[in-house]
């Protein structure tokens, strides 16, 4: 029908159809016995099964192929019959022009292809130049599409949102300053800083730190006649496993610490010299950390302390202090991380 999409044949197809028609022409020595009727000197007789294109469809195809046919072009009569057999369709076609009569037999499982072939052969017989002009694609026309092909244009996709920055998987360096409260190693609650440098991995960390507890006075009686100022320092090495949930970390750490406790006499015993004793302990504890940015974190932790040595401090035969076997330490610190 006229509203159907135009199918394009290359010029080689037109030339082949013209050659096929010319080679099959049979001059029977007499002009056709009947004058042409129909559109512009084209007479069509089409017989085909019900699922095939109708005669009007074949005629519409002829009109498309002969759109600018010369007025003086000869008449054409086409008798075409399609039959079914052995799983295929066979077209018996007889084309009659003033030059003679030609017969063709075509087979195909597609009846539409047979109808198109019949229209093309008849059109070439009527006016091959008109067919060539009708099928010539425009210079700016897109390439012809195969029959019944649907062109799908994919709309550009939405830009993908930027991926969230993944946490670094390489080892990183850290520097942390902690404030510490400690009970058990000195007579009174110990106060001081811990400065720590560390190496951080995806789920682990290793640390080396310096612990300093400021000296605090301690007396053996309420009269404060016998006493000493106790303080200590130490070096700590520990390793941690660090489960991570988004920006929250849960370090579980164990380590060893060694250093020195110093007692400086006060009161009646102030004339004596300072006493220094070596000291060691094992620590085990956990904590929680918050890392809102990759380069910074806030950490809090609690450690249990087990003294490995318990040095005794005496002044004038009076016992001043001996570290407890078990102690506890609480820390809160700010950590910088690179890179």
Keywords:
single chain; 339 residues; Double Stranded RNA Binding Domain; Porin; 8-stranded antiparallel β-barrel; 5-stranded mixed β-sheet; 4 helices; rod-shaped; disordered N terminus
- Residue stretches low in confidence (pLDDT < 50, at least 5 long) are 1-9, 21-39
The outline comes out as rod-shaped
Q: What string gives the helices and strands in order?
A: HEEHEEEHHEEEEEEEEEEEE
Number of helices: 4
CATH architecture of the largest domain: Beta Barrel
Whole-number radius of gyration?
Answer: 52 Å
* Beta-strand residue percentage: over 45%
Return the CATH topology of the largest domain.
Porin
Please give the CATH class of the largest domain.
Answer: Mainly Beta
Total DSSP E strands: 17
- The largest beta-sheet arranges its strands as 6-7-8-9-12-13-14-17
In angstroms, what separates the terminal alpha carbons? 73 Å
How would a textbook summarize the main sheet? 8 strands, antiparallel, barrel
How many structural domains? 2
Structural class, by secondary structure, is mainly beta
Mean pLDDT: 80
Task: Explain how this protein is built.
The protein has 339 residues and is mainly beta. The chain folds into two domains: 11-135, 2-Layer Sandwich (Double Stranded RNA Binding Domain), CATH 3.30.160.100; 172-338, Porin (Beta Barrel). It has helices at 11-24, 55-65, 111-126, 128-135; strands at 25-26, 42-47, 76-85, 88-97, 100-108, 172-183, 190-200, 204-219, 226-241, 244-245, 248-249, 252-267, 275-293, 296-307, 313-315, 318-321, 326-338. The longest helix is centred in the middle third of the chain and has 16 residues, at 111-126. The two termini are 73 Å apart. Residues 1-9 and 21-39 have low confidence and may be disordered.
């Amino acid at each position: 029908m006229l509203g159907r999409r135009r199918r394009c044949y290359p010029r080689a197809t037109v030339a082949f159809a013209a050659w096929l028609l010319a080679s099959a022409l049979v001059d029977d020595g007499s002009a056709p016995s009947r004058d042409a009727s129909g559109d512009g000197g084209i007479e069509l007789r089409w017989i085909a099964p019900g699922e095939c294109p109708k005669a009007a469809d074949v005629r519409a195809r002829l009109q498309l192929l002969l759109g600018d046919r010369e007025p003086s072009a000869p008449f054409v009569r086409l008798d075409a019959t399609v039959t079914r057999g052995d799983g295929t369709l066979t077209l018996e076609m007889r084309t009659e022009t003033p030059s003679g009569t030609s017969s063709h037999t075509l087979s195909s499982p597609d009846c539409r292809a047979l109808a198109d072939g019949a229209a093309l052969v008849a059109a070439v017989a009527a006016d091959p130049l008109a067919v060539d002009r009708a099928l010539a694609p425009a210079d700016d026309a897109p390439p012809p599409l195969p029959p019944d092909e649907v062109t799908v244009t994919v709309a550009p996709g939405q830009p993908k949102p930027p991926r969230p920055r993944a946490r670094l998987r390489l080892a990183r360096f850290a520097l942390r300053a902690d404030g510490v409260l400690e009970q058990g190693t000195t007579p009174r609650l110990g106060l001081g800083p811990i400065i720590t440098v560390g190496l951080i991995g995806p789920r682990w960390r290793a640390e080396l730190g310096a612990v300093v507890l400021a000296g605090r006075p301690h007396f053996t009686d309420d009269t404060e006649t016998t006493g000493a100022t106790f303080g200590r320092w130490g070096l700590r090495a520990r390793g941690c496993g660090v489960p991570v949930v988004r920006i929250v970390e849960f370090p579980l750490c164990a380590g060893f610490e060694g250093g020195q406790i110093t007692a400086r006499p006060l009161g009646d015993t102030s004339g004596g010299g300072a006493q220094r004793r070596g000291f060691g302990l094992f620590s085990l504890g956990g904590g929680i950390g918050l890392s809102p940015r990759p380069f910074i974190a806030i950490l809090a932790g609690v450690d249990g302390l087990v003294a490995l040595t318990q040095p005794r401090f005496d002044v004038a035969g009076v016992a001043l202090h001996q570290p407890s076997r078990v102690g506890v330490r609480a820390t809160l610190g700010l950590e910088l991380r690179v890179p």
